[in-house]
Amino acid sequence: DADVTQTPRNRITKTGKRIMLECSQTKGHDRMYWYRQDPGLGLRLIYYSFDVKDINKGEISDGYSVSRQAQAKFSLSLESAIPNQTALYFCATSDQSAGMENIQYFGAGTRLSVL
Amino acid sequence: GESVGLHLPTLSVQEGDNSIINCAYSNSASDYFIWYKQESGKGPQFIIDIRSNMDKRQGQRVTVLLNKTVKHLSLQIAATQPGDSAVYFCAENSGGSNYKLTFGKGTLLTVNP
Asked: Does any CB of chain B come closer than 8 Å to the CB of residue A61?
């Protein structure tokens, strides 16, 4: 979805490096999410935010941190990257006012390789 | 914990045939379900959703069926086209106020011309 933009699209880094993945959205949604996708494991939630300054851990938050300084932006950081963090990362947004219909809209993904 | 799973990891069909992709869920408190399509190199794209108070919902060439008795969800694609080739995920909202989604592992649909 072009309304959810992830940068960079691809990133290669070395073990121990700090990196940041950016997500921005023009949908005006209040909720934002970061997922990790690995072959055979599906999408797993890393962190989510229901509003600016609101941060919640997902099922696999260890080794990651996030920042939600503005409604439209949600960044994911790897403080010290390790090879098993090599994966495809997705940002998603949803609209709280939609109530139960929590349709999440995804960006195109960032492919991260940690060497 | 609760989980969402799929009966078949891969499905191969002929162009023009109907496709059925299945999903089993284990959380009886789940009140809302979504099907997503993910094409190669792209993010998941919303296809269709259904609330737990419904057992069927139709979209354009797609139908979702929900059987709460056996906790089963299916996606039917009519007259499957090559452009339908993708990985399909089901996702459930397990209820409550958090509105987080739990995703299944996905089924790869391949459409043969």
From this structure: no
